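Troubleshooting entry. Yesterday's outputs looked truncated, so today I'm pasting the complete records for two proteins to confirm everything comes through intact. If either block looks cut off, that's the bug. Protein one:
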Amino acid sequence: MSLPSYIARTLLIILFLFPVVVPLSDAKADDQGHTKTVVVIGASTIYKNDSASAREAAISSSLISAVNMATMEILPIESVVRNFTIINKILYSKTGEFVQGYKVLTEFPSEKTYRVMVQATVSISVLEKKLSEAGIVVRQKALPKVLFLVAEQRLQDNFLNYWWRKDSAFFKAVAETSLTETLTAEGFSIINHDGIMGKEGLDAVYDRPDLNNQQVEALGNRFQAEVVVVGTSTASKMTNIMGTNIKSFKGTVMARAIRTDTGAQVASTTQSAVTANSDEIVGGREALSAAGVLAGKELASQIAAAWQKEDKQANMLEIMLEGTGNLANFVKFRNMLKDLPGVREMQIKEMKPDQAIIVVSFQGNAKKLADALILKTFESVGINIYEVSEDHLRIQLIPG
């Protein structure tokens, strides 16, 4: 057997022995909304020589794989694990709601197994809607870095304590721990402020538990946060008791979330929880922790919704790029474009020998993108922006 024939045969064996998921494109927009097209392979056992039923089962298996792939791209793995039961109920039992269309590209019936290669188009818009309705936070882009400014008064305290207070750098509110765990599980990055006061120091104007939005914004920018959650958590005794030992305690968290780039409030919530315990200190902490979990879930949902809403307002622009025959220069330009402020995502729409069309999701119009590009410097390559219209640019790469 010749080497090319051997390689081809080996690839076919691998293809049909193992499930494969191949994205055709990152995403596309059509009349029915945001979609994703993928190629998947499904398989089913042939029972009693019934190849027709096995074929249908293999197609169903491939469509489930397509929906699963789309789900994994918009949800953090922690969220999938935590909500797996709900996801199974709303997605995999109703696959047809999310698949806009499919076609069988090829099929391979063996003695015991029927395999199909299917191209499927999944509606990301419908998928996001169903997940959101189920209370699952959908992530379309990287979620913001969050700093917590939570002042807390526990049962044994006479006043609010807070970590940004002078000489209180290592204090952490009980409710903040729950908030941190909850938002982390939803895909947020949390800024660790432990011990930061010893290194940074703060002006006396910030030494107060009730910071205004302007102060919150300034602190957030200082610690490189994109969103700051600021508020209070308090514990109190309730009148309900059971016997001589068990007492009840109430924890309350009041919080709001502020964007550091605009100073706008993007979320707010007030949540309370009641617990019972024979130990006052433990009972109070448990109540604060439980209220923190409730507040964290609500804040995560509101912040994510606000963050994604802004992303959906980005413009889709096309860059017609010439001079891509020099691959090194093309890679340099693409990497620079990806890291340019305001660029949410990018994908290569078309490639020709010395030309490429790049689709960019950008916070602004084509003129604003051109203005940003002209200020960038490239090693050993320059750019000539020779045409700017409402939604596209024509750019030539110039060897240095």
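Protein two, checking that the full record survives here as well:
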Amino acid sequence: MPDQRFAYIPVHDLRSGRCTGVEVVPRLHHDAVAVAARDRGWDARRIAELDAGTAVSAVASARSWGAAVPVQVDVAADTVLHARGRLRAMLGGTSDPVAPLLEVGPPIAAAAPAEHLVLALAELRRWGFRIGLDGAGRAFGPELVAAVRPDVVKLEPDLCDGMLDTGTGAAVRAVVEVSRAVGAPVAATGVRDAARLTGLFAIGIAFAQGPLLGGTRAAPEADPATRAELLGLLSAMPQPAAGRAAAVRPVPGRPGPGHPAPERGGTPEPAATPVPVPAGPPVRGLAVPAVTLPDDAVGDTAREALRARPDSGGIVLVDRAHRPVGYLDRSRVLLQLAGRFGHALWAEKPAAELADPPRTVDERTPLHRAMEIGLSGDPARGYDDLVVVAPDGTCRGVVPVAELWRRAILPPAASGPRPVPVPQAARTA
């Protein structure tokens, strides 16, 4: 039974228009933990316990709807420091094989030491959580973004509203640049104005939520009309700077703009050292949440996970340390299970027997190198997702190979959002 205390805000990918998640929020303002704790003199541990319990209930409520998109939930920095163990109740269930995104906000009780927060977030990651920083540019500075390397960085509504102001716009661009350097996509919250949305998209904002994109809803699902409206708004916009190739810099000694060739008979300039080509943004900027199951899951559990997540290309099997140990491709697994006696043969057997080794790629790998990895190896697995891993080997998500191809083939102006054809009703003679 859904918990009536909570409402849901769809989060849209500005590059595709798709709804990629729902943020669970209190339905009423006075139900927020920060409001309840205000002026009551609660210490950090009491606030953390209440916040952890509320977050667990919020995720359970979203899952009770059978939502087909990943869940995002707010937690305070106090909770990460003092009650993160209680958050493990969100993990381990087969009802939702995609780990929730913890949107870590500023502390409610007192300032949290940055070094302690970084260590606590690293532990949550090892357990399998995805991590977001909520309030970057206000609550958290760019240095924390660089240290944490979150899965997403969220901008506060007041920063998004002030995008057209000189000072606020500079702060937003600083957050975007740091996030781009570490491969973390940036999301805008509270978006209510089309002009600001297009401005945010132009500087590289990847995700957005707010009244303009459907606002708060009673169920964890997006308005079907929002995607078409969003694509119509952004289809004429050029690709953000993050997706463009670096400009060619003039090389001394070679003809080019501002550097004419020497006159005939003149002394040529000495040969110049070739300008190094930038490596490009890291691949984790393209990562999407992975559908994961423990490595001892059985075939029927894998089949149910694929049914619950129809948009996923496959399942990543992970060990107790959340390191990928196998990959179940959707097409190959379902062919095995759909064959004659397939369900009887595989339903109760370990899914690992159907798995292939995961095609892993370090989260810091440049896009062009990730493409080379995607093209190498067994041609039969050429369309398997790449599994993005952190330096410690833990799973950070997957990158669909189709998205790598899209970035590599399409010109910059064409690799932004494209309109989706509307199916036409069949005509009868």
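Both blocks look complete. Sanity check on protein two: The two ends are 48 Å apart (CA to CA).
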